[in-house]
Amino acid sequence: MARTTGLVLAAGGLALANEVFFAPATGTGSTFSNLNWRLIPATGALALALGGLEQIAPAFAVGLAGLVVLSVLVIPVGKAPTPLQNIAKLVNPKA
């Protein structure tokens, strides 16, 4: 498995976990009714693309995969707020 594949799968897993677990726990979404199912094939396609890019430019591809993980944390990907916003609501519900 390429080094980028784990990072991309982590990013996809974070996005899905955010929509399935974190958003309903904070009251900003429902479990499966608003789930953006396009995240699953997009994660697979990105893993394949970055795995191919890693054959050409390994350091660039790993850095790009790291930026994908970071962007999933701070940019809303699906229909729910970002994971950092949902975790902040879980930790401090009055804010």
* Gross morphology: elongated
Query: Span between N and C termini?
Result: 42 Å
Mean of residue pLDDT values: 87
User: What amount of the residues lies in strands?
Assistant: under 5%
| Domain count | 1
Q: C-alpha Rg, in Å?
A: 15 Å
**SSE series:** HHHH
Question: Helical segment tally?
Answer: 4
Q: What's the count of strands? A: 0
Helicity level: over 70%
Structural class, by secondary structure, is mainly alpha
- Major sheet summary line: none
**Low-confidence sequence ranges:** none
What brief labels describe this structure?
single chain, 95 residues, mainly alpha, 4 helices, 0% strand
What does this entry look like structurally?
The chain contains four helices and no strands. 72% of the residues lie in helices and 0% in strands. Helix 1 (3-26) runs antiparallel to helix 2 (39-56), helix 1 packs parallel to helix 3 and helix 2 runs antiparallel to helix 3. The protein has 95 residues and is an all-alpha fold. The protein has one domain (3-91).
